[in-house]
Amino acid sequence: MGLIDILLARAKQGHRTIGYPKNPPVLPELFQGRPIVRPELCRSGCGKCADVCPTGAITLPTHIKNPELLLFATSDDAGGGDDTLSLDVGRCIFCGECEKVCGDKAIEFTKEHRMAASSREALKLSGETYEMAKALDKKALKVFGRSLKLRQVSAGGCNACEADINVLNTVVFDLGRFGIQFAASPRHADGLLITGPVTKNMELALRKTWDAVPEPKIVIAVGACAINGGLYAGHAETRSGIPSWLKVDLYIPGCPPHPITILDGLLRLLGKLDE
Fold it and tell me: Per residue in 223-240, pLDDT tens?
């Protein structure tokens, strides 16, 4: 193939990189995005949503755990405080079964791709509001804002999250245009991007990798397994997510999270997105 043929082929193919974040993302029709929890609609007291949840992501209020109290429940009981219907997005695998069985429509999955959060508590939903990820502080942004190199650690994952992370390196997403790259060695990295439930066999490797990253450094948890163990939570051979000796700077929920969700979280961490 000559140079003219190559140029003609490129002209025919056009621009392949997505317009996000300048343009809205194009998501699959079956995409399960950020859920909405409406405790005030949960009046039947059936508890079916919690029964079908495979990861225990749903917490029921007292009057549903104890149906005899349902007659005495008020709208205030179902609408606020700790004793309310809630969904832990960090545990959720987005199977959608809770939405299917909820006759009250108290839980609904949307097409919202923005799900990254800066704290574990922010992932626990008990209403329609959601606290999205915040940017690093000014001192950290001065170090990482223009160039962020991450060492990806698969700590016992099934490779679903890993596959969607790899997609970010393709021409479609072109992660490098934002100054974000994956490093082959932790000694060349600014932090770790961790997937998987952290099996016991991977914990020492994870610690050694973390120790090899020079200061200052950050940690990003991608997927339900890394955040809370996912489907493997409580298993004798896993740590049920990233160990407590690592401070997580960014949580990106999903099973696996869509590449756009991962990209959105990374850009928010670097202060490149405000909305």
Answer: 999 999 999 999 999 999
